[in-house]
Amino acid sequence: MQARVRISLGAITCALVAGTLVNPTTAFGQTDDVTFTKDIAPIFQASCQTCHRDGAIAPMSLMTYDESRPWARAIKDKVSTRSMPPWYIDRNIGVQDFKYDRSLSDDQIATIVAWVDAGAPRGNPSDMPAARQFANRDMWHIGEPDWIVPIPEPFVVPADGANWWGDLFSDSGLTEDRWIKSVETKPSAEGFPVVHHAVTRLQESVDSDQGEFLNEYAQGKNGDAFPAGTGRLVKAGSIIRFNMHYASIGKETTDRTSVGLTFYPKGEEPKHELFSRALAQNYDLDIPAGDDDVRHDSYHPFTENVRLTGYQPHLHNRGKRQCIEAILPDGTTEMLSCSNWDFGWHIVYNYEDDAQPLLPKGTFLHTMTWHDNSAGNRWNPDARNWAGFGQRSSDDMSFTWTSYYELDDDEFAAAQEERRVMTNDDDN
Ligand code: HEC
Q1: How confident is the model over 228-238, as pLDDT tens digits?
Q2: Closest residue (by CA) to atom 28 of ligand 1?
Q3: pTM, whole model, 2 decimals?
Q4: HEC assignment per residue over 102-144
């Protein structure tokens, strides 16, 4: 798959070079060259700087020309293989409209490659856009929460150390059931640079391996406000599980990540419950030692009509790729999404409202997963070992986190009609 992406990029780069050849030089003899100040800085502002600036999680700042120039080769490599920015949706398969999509277009990648190949020129300083301003780290993007639950104790990340992955559990403190309207998971202001990701879930108890997904924090993401008329039920006595990934930054840093919730008024219930569930869990993984392309399939039946709002592959170290497909009641199939997998990043892909798949009851969600148990996978703990399903981090997994809500037949027909009208409008 990577190869296919590279081939198409190659074609685009060639097209761009060919275009430059026929482009007439401008009146003063200057060619229309790609420069940092004119072309690259706006891309970095939009797609890189949330993470690549002082005090954020990335290893270097890409705020200025002088900071970016030494990284030019690495930048070309990471953007042209689409390993940066982290966003692994396959652009040739399935739905393409996502909220918080930070990926680069093929044209933007071609621009960055052309800039690096031209020697990464600075360009005219007056072309440089004003520096991007970032939100205050104490700010909640969902507004002041009604309820805030922090991790149980402040977490100290040493100056130097291996990445830390693990689960922390806090009592929600809720003594009655409440419907939530929005949710945001957020590191403390000091912890911001060391929190690589934080995924929050609701569980009935610490040992439960089921539960409702709450929210995923990653830099550049601003919390989730549920679609109008939908909400998630937080039961009294719920436990909140924080799945954390901490990374050292060269100085001891203390974090206290919290999750903030806003509620529907007491007694008011949203029309639809927005579920977020682990579906199509595969308990029969058989991943031979050394094999770099092991496929497994698993299925989940939807017994009600559903509107799918979000998708997250869930694999462990040997994960390589996951695709989800709908097998519709009439037997036809529709590819919904494919995503490569990098264990270092847990990304939730939320569909744009207009693109959320509408699946009639009787649909099977078909999950296809590929694992790479070879030494070529940098996350592989030991390529000499067979791997199967399990909870330990040395075991592997395959399931699909989905967010969805159910529609009755009338609502479903109305949603389909709305989609049909919209699609026809687009065609005109
Ligand atoms: C969501 C946060 C995030 C975004 C957005 C992001 N990066 Fe990164 N980047 C990282 C982190 C963290 C690393 C360190 C390696 C890792 O964890 O994968 C990294 C590593 C890199 C590296 C490798 C540095 C090295 O040590 O060799 C390059 C180059 C890079 N990023 C370029 C970019 C560019 C260019 C963009 C935008 C087009 C971008 N990144 C967007 C977080 C981000």
Answers
A1: 889 999 999 99
A2: 75
A3: 0.83
A4: CCCCHHHHHHHHHHHHCCCCCCCHHHCCCCCCCCCCCCCCCCC
